[in-house]
Design a protein that fits this description.
With about 240 residues, the protein is an alpha+beta fold. It contains eight helices and six strands, in the order βββαβββααααααα. The protein folds into two domains: about 120 residues, Glutaredoxin (3-Layer(aba) Sandwich), CATH 3.40.30.10; about 110 residues, Glutathione S-transferase Yfyf (Class Pi), Chain A, domain 2, CATH 1.20.1050.10.
Length: about 240
């Protein structure tokens, strides 16, 4: 696919969802473009896009490179990925992108409808629990930062009984009886949680119990998750 200019950003070749849509930029009627790469949090958004099944284009942006594509900071002032473009809308922040897409494309049922007050409240709770205290705690662990005795409540990990292990235990409790956070219903909150846990388990930062390990193992083998990994791996191999 030849490069095109989008919103002032010089873009290169990209991959679209599904084998039959590879290289068919003209079929992207939804106007979805995902900027990032398979070694970044863009892999989470790609998984969600594969669950939705709507055509999209992936525009590679290497978050580790010292420079970004020309014009990229115009749509991502911090130079972060992923970035989602949907028509005239441009947005960053992975959990926000996931919440937006789950609402904007409701057919797969990845978010409770606005009228489902209790389910939607719990959905938001777990989506932002993952993006907030859980991610903060795993980041601190990776950096070797341990808050002082009064620190966990200050940094959002909880009170004196807080800390990463307690947060992970809370997730395990929420998954009982399961199999998902909202019982039988798989949502974008499960996807975001499982993707993050899988990454941190592989890094050795999270020691999952039986329930949590089974949850992650089951979700990352969903057909959409496998497709997303295959697309990521192909692009990584291409350099």
């Amino acid at each position: 696919m030849t490069g095109v200019a989008m919103g002032g950003v010089a873009t290169g070749g990209g991959a679209m969802t599904g084998d039959t849509q590879q290289g068919q930029a003209g079929q992207n009627e939804a106007g979805l473009v995902l900027y990032g790469n398979g070694l970044s949090r863009a892999r989470i958004v790609r998984w969600l896009l594969e669950e939705i099944g709507c055509p999209y284009r992936m525009e590679p942006v290497d978050h580790r490179a010292p420079t970004r594509p020309a014009g990229f900071e115009a749509i991502s002032p911090l130079g972060k990925v992923p970035v989602l473009r949907h028509g005239e809308l441009v947005m960053t922040e992975t959990p926000a992108i996931c919440a937006y897409l789950a609402d904007r494309f409701p057919q797969p049922g990845l978010a409770p409808a606005p009228g489902e007050t209790r389910a939607r409240g719990l959905y938001y709770q777990w989506l932002f629990f993952t993006a907030g205290p859980l991610e903060a705690a795993t980041t601190n662990r990776r950096l070797g930062i341990e808050p002082a005795r009064e620190g966990p409540s200050f940094v959002g990990h909880g009170g004196p009984s807080g800390g990463l292990e307690r947060l992970v235990a809370l997730v395990g409790e929420a998954l009982t009886p399961g199999p998902c956070l909202l019982g039988e219903r798989f949502t974008a909150a499960d996807l975001y949680l499982a993707a993050g846990l899988d990454f941190n388990i592989r890094l050795g930062l999270v020691q999952p119990g039986r329930v949590l390990a089974a949850y992650v193992a089951r979700l990352i083998e969903r057909p959409a998750a496998r497709r997303a990994r295959q697309l990521d791996a192909a692009e990584i191999a291409q350099g």
